Amino acid sequence: MSLEDNQKKTRFVTLFPETGWSHLLKDVGMIPYTMYKNYNYDASIVTYQHGEYPYLDNEVKGLKLEYLSRTNNDTKDGIDYLTHNAQNIDILHLFHLSQRTFDWIHIYKKLNPNGKVYLKLDTTEDIKGADQGFWNWVRNSLTKCHVVSAETLEVCKCLNDKWPIRVEYITNGVYECPKCIVEYQEKENTILTVGRIGTEQKFNEVLLTAFKLAHTHMSNWKLKLLGSVTPEFQQVITNYFLESPELKDKVFILGETADRAYINEEYKKAKIFCLTSRREGFPLVFPEAAIHGCFIISSDLASARDITGNKKYGETFPVGDSQQLAEILIKVSNDENKLRASCPEIQQFARDNFQWDKICQTLHSALSNPVPN
């Protein structure tokens, strides 16, 4: 047995009961997996079991799942898990500012005072408007955390100006980088969006309306929507094609898939990636689109400003404004020089700033600092 085998590995536990198969390639899975892969942490995710987890066999091989006993109270189930396991956890990784999170922080630190808590806020920019009463609510819990992080530069700056704790800039990243730069000539006249199609947050009807307004000014362009579709939105799509049958050959609903090769191929073919969300923290689709050379058009979000280098590699429009989005789609789709030039540039920008290996290096350094007395 080697010396390394005898040394106790750092036990890193991500407690997130909602973890399903798709989370494993998002921050929920990629942070513990990268800490395991790059820094030899003993990493696992604690969750309820939600069906099969196909990515465990290849994409995140070596990452472990632990399954919670399920009642009708996820806060209590997490507390029960920590009651039995807190002393064996070196780093507890949690998400969101919520009472559930705070309850877990307090029980963990009570049972393991020397343990470290990493809280990933995963918050939208709405938090910038939080008042003193909000800080008074979160103060006791946040001061027990070893690392608190936010995903966008704008939110980090605001919170560091307002809160008497350090908020680290730990953004979201891409699962894998193509070995070669995607060449512009490989791309097609396609606009792509990826996500949970039809949810209130994603506001996909804005994109459908904008494309209907713009398509006659966009020669031979297609729109693709990739992801699960809500039942309510199925009817929206049906009505859309009834009202505009000429779009049946231009708008494609691709559905949901776990096939990463297929998803990456759709990114690779798209010239434009469009997100119409009402609100976001830092959506994982942004670095995925950027690393495949897509020009990004998004509702005006802090994360959109980050991923486009303050609109160097993309454009933004006011939330819900289909007319302005249509005008941007027409302008960008007809500017071949702009699309061609930004294709390699945004790929390099993503490689430099939005790879999990580099992001988790920042996290590892922050976690390696000793617990203050």
Automatic annotation (TrEMBL):
Record keywords: Transferase
Gene3D superfamilies (UniProt xref): Glycogen Phosphorylase B
Top-rank taxon, per record: Bacteria
UniProt domain Glycosyl transferase family: residue ranges: 185-343
PANTHER family linked: GLYCOSYLTRANSFERASE WBBK-RELATED
Official protein name in the record: Glycosyl transferase family 1 domain-containing protein
Species this protein is from: Sporomusa silvacetica DSM 10669
